[in-house]
Design brief:
260 residues, alpha+beta, Thrombin, subunit H, six-stranded antiparallel beta barrel, 15% strand, rod-shaped
Length: 260
């Protein structure tokens, strides 16, 4: 029985050993397969890490570019804001200038309307002046005609007054001339109140000169003084010296030469 037991134990040991060897080989094979899978995973992970690292580097480069673009964009935005402020200021100034120009335009319109009114009035005044000039021209012709007629009459009267007298000395003649001038009288022939002058019957033949003063009387009452401005042979034109005389004087009033 001992030999038989031994004979049975040896194959059992061999079987157990084979089983153990098979188990170890199986485990080794399994571990090797696992190691291969892990190595492959490691390689894939390494490749993914490298790709991720490259992507991270590219992302950093992209972020740097974006940051540079952001700075440039901010600078452009600041410039645009500055330009916008300047544009707003320029617009406000332009609006203020437009308002000023609008006020000036309104003032010019009022000034133009005022000038047009004044021009209309000036044209009316000019028309009235032209009409007065026509009237004065006709009056002048009439006065010239009257002057010629009066000079003709005066010459005829002078011819009728010529008297031959004995010769006298120059001193006695001067005394007679002074006495004559001191008593020299005439009359107002024409009164022109529009142009402030009168025409008298005294002329150069009566011994008066330009700038002589003539006193005006009416029925012995003194009215004022005249100053001779233009002189003809038998008549003269004189302006008003005494204030208010223009409103008092009439044709036919007496004029007397004032001597100093």
């Amino acid at each position: 029985m001992g030999v038989r037991a031994r004979s049975l134990t040896l194959p059992l040991i061999i079987l157990v050993s084979l089983a153990l060897i098979s188990a170890v080989f199986y485990l080794f094979q399994k571990e090797h397969t696992k190691n291969l899978a892990l190595q492959q995973q490691l390689e894939e992970t390494t490749m993914k890490y490298r790709r991720t690292e490259l992507e991270l580097k590219e992302a950093r480069n992209k972020a740097s570019e974006l940051e540079s673009e952001l700075k440039h964009t901010r600078l452009q935005l600041d410039n645009l804001n500055q330009q916008l402020k300047q544009t707003i200021i320029a617009k406000e100034e332009a609006l203020a200038r437009v308002e000023e120009l609008s006020k000036e335009l309104d003032e010019h319109k009022l000034y133009k309307a005022d000038l047009e009114k004044k021009l209309d009035l000036a044209q009316k005044d000019l028309q009235e002046v032209l009409e007065k000039l026509k009237d004065l021209s006709a009056e002048k012709k009439e006065l010239e005609s009257m002057v010629k007629e009066m000079e003709t009459k005066a010459q005829k009267v002078e011819l009728g007054k010529i008297v031959v007298t004995p010769e006298v000395t120059s001193s006695s003649q001067q005394v007679k001339d002074e006495a004559f001038l001191s008593n020299l009288e005439g009359e107002i022939l024409v009164v022109n109140k529009d142009y402030d002058f009168v025409v008298t019957s005294l002329g150069s033949k009566d011994g008066i000169d330009v700038d002589n003063i003539l006193a005006v009387y009416r029925k012995g009452k003194y009215l004022g003084d005249l100053k001779v401005e233009r002189l003809h042979e038998s008549m003269s034109a004189a302006g008003f010296v005494t204030e208010g005389l223009k409103d008092k004087i009439n044709e036919g009033d007496t004029v007397v030469l004032k001597t100093q």
